[in-house]
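If you are new to this repository, start here. Below is one unmodified record pulled from the training split, so you can see the exact layout before writing a loader.
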Amino acid sequence: MSLTSLLLNSFLQFMLAGFASIVAMFMAIGFLNGVKVPAYHEAVLGVVYCLIPLSGIASIGFMIYQYNNSAAAVSSWWHLIPLPSIIIFVVYLVVISIIYKQSIDQLG
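And here is the target side for that same chain:
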């Protein structure tokens, strides 16, 4: 990996982390609009929401570490680090929105 590709990949990963966190915020607003969820669900969503940009920054750190240790093309796999936190956030959000929207529909 050259220095140019490291800088470009780091910049793109940083932008992806910001974009993913904005998309996650608007997804949460859209899915939970008008749905009353308990505070512990909001706390879990908040923690996972904070993990999305932090995992992007961690992947940048791993790419820089791999660059300093003369790693080969394997260092490109570090771009996938934010993916599990995004998947966990989306699945958890969809599940709690389905559960609590069904409970609201049964009451009303």
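Two things worth knowing about this chain: The chain is about 80% helix and 0% strand. The radius of gyration is 18 Å.
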